[in-house]
Amino acid sequence: MVSIIGAGITGLVLGEYLQWADIPFRIHEASDRIGGRLHTLESDGFLLENGPSFLDLDDNLFGFLERIGLSNQMIHAYAGARKKFFVRENGTQPLPEGIISVLLGNYFSGKAKEMIWNERFKQGNWVQRESVEAFCRRRFGEEVTRQALLPLLEVQFAGNGGELLLEEAFPQLARFEKDYGSVRKGWSRTRHANRHRGRISFPKGLQQLTDTLGERLQGHIELNCPLTSLGFGERIELKFGDRVEHPSAVVLALPAHELGKMPRSSFPEVAEGMSQVNYASLAVVHTALNRSQIKHPLNGQGLWFPHTEDGPAFHTIFSSSLFPQQAPSGKVLLTSYVSGIRQPEWLEMSDAELGKKVLTALEPLGLSGDPLFQQITRQPAAIPQYDSAILASRVWLRKMELKRIYLGGNWLGGISVSNCVQRARDIAEKIIGRRPAN
Description:
It is a single chain. The protein is α/β, with parallel strands linked by helices. Among the domains are: 2-38 and 206-277 and 387-434, FAD/NAD(P)-binding domain, CATH 3.50.50.60; 95-190, protoporphyrinogen ix oxidase, domain 3 (Orthogonal Bundle), CATH 1.10.3110. Helix content is 35%, strand content 23%. It has helices at 9-20, 59-67, 99-104, 110-119, 132-140, 142-154, 166-169, 171-180, 183-190, 207-216, 256-260, 268-275, 319-322, 344-347, 351-361, 388-393, 397-402, 417-434, and strands spanning 2-5, 25-28, 40-43, 46-49, 55-57, 75-76, 83-88, 91-94, 198-201, 221-222, 229-232, 236-240, 243-245, 249-253, 279-290, 300-304, 314-318, 331-339, 373-384, 405-408. The strands form 5 sheets. Strands 8-7-16-17-18-15-19 form a 7-stranded mixed sheet, sandwiched between helices. Strands 10-2-1-14-20 form a 5-stranded parallel sheet. Helix 8 (171-180) packs across helix 9 (183-190).
């Protein structure tokens, strides 16, 4: 019997893989629901995503969705909502798409355009443990970094580009420079590497993915079942309150900060290392309005703010533009993600104050009147930060695996759902490889 601790996306996907391999397992979840950060709510005909607004599709994720019967349920983002708008001089302007639009448009200065053009010919000069911000500035210069790259990259982790490590947070960008000598060259030569790509959701929102897995794994999931102790010697010992179990292997599919809270007697060095992993807290602010209350056409993905010392540290997704089914006809839904790292004082506000702060920042969209409603969900320790602290936490992986204890979660190998699917598959293959021959 394999014990999986945690019913987030990694734990559920792992259960699915083990079920395919006919390996006995059980998933233990401390809370009263499965799914982790994939959590969709319905309110007055609106679909509110309290985690990510969409999934980035690739061949890896598509293959898994096909296996569980969800590939025919995918809803691709509306093709007419591709633009990324930035706040510029109290209005908005779309970021140019493609090198021709960059060179002919007026978004960037002449000097910045020259930096972008010359990046293709700039010799790679790889710097170990370079930050995302330092990399962008070295390759593209200050203006492009502040006005475009840093806002787009930071929001994926709700973090600080000066602390995030490029090779950890965005390994593909690092490979572009290493393998092709240029970000632009690497992107142009690999952008069609995945046959399946784009942004997707499902008719009932992203939680439909984890609900589907929950239905397929019925009888294997135990809710309200927190792990209270883990010990290992000649065999693994798990305690769930007064109950003791001795599984053949255990998978801790938990956030690093939860692992760090485990009793130090279980594995003191590992628990201490996990407690050092930094996490970003988030506030997800849903704003519902009548379409007539917004002058902006909302013909894009969302709104970003240039990277400044005192500027807003959040971005807003035009949810009902990407996925029209997420709002009733004649209504719009905006989903704002407020970072607790860049602007911790915003997360200290009351819900009413935070809601007003977000509305004020969104005034360049031409808002009028009060929203139909605002719903705010606060998520402490929401997204792991791929900074220098996370490197030290991984030195114990091999040592733990030798004791048949495996670690999973979005703090290992990437934060996307596709990354978690891959991590679950890797763990499953290791467990399957350990199984004695019949």
